[in-house]
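Hi D.,

Good news: the full-assembly prediction came through. Inputs first.
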Amino acid sequence: MIETTFTPVSAAAGGAMIGMATVMLLALRGNVFGATGILAGFLSPSSSSDWAWRAAILAGLVSGPAAYFAFAGEMPAVEVPVAPWMVLVGGFLVGLGVTFGSGCTSGHGICGLARGARRSLVATTTFMITTGLTVYAVRHIWGGM
Amino acid sequence: MQIVAIYLAGLLFGLGISISGMANPAKTLNFFDVAGGWDPSLAVVMVTALLVAAVGYRLVLRRSAPVFAPRFQLPTSRVLDVKLVGGAVLFGIGWGLSGFCPGASLPALGTGRMEVFAFTAALIAGMFVARGLMRLGALRASAATA
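Then the structure:
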């Protein structure tokens, strides 16, 4: 386990920016800002114009750390406290889950809840509990990280 | 113009993830570890983002259409089924194992870290396998009714 400290101010500032970004995309193009949906449509686009805006948003996402670097003078921290196989198996399960469940933390947890969608409330509650149980099992039962 | 504006929306999201610390799996996992060294930051990020989005969505949806498209394209499904809940369970297990979720890992690609690329490759593989399975299921269902 790697210790991290509670950072309420930067969490709220970053959260507000994430919220504003979702509002921007709705106002500009009328879409919800689900990372999974944007990526899925980028990988298998329905038309070239549909692909272009997804490519633009992904380019924007990936430039986030560089923009952060421009004023913070360092890249945002990425500390991985788990074994490589957990990253790979975890990634694969996330890929299955977000496709079957039609969304992830951004699509269901922010955009869906903001719209008052019941599906998103069910999905968000389910994955938040499951993630908590998984972390508990790994850290306190199995002792794996 | 449209592409630049949409790029900026992506950039704002990616910057928000970077500032909030959510690009860091250690921080995300510590939120879920209430029984260990708890870091509540993720809850603050989600609640703030949700409040801003809820207010902003309400204002934007008063308009008849978005700026660059003829109509809003919001998800229409209202079904609560096994696929939705089962998918959320699989997602939760994967998130709990790896500490990455797609909204955080896509911006984190910009840090150039190998682990993020590994996660994203596995994520994409999972997405294609799930889509293949769903297509297979749909084929079987249509064969059964034919």
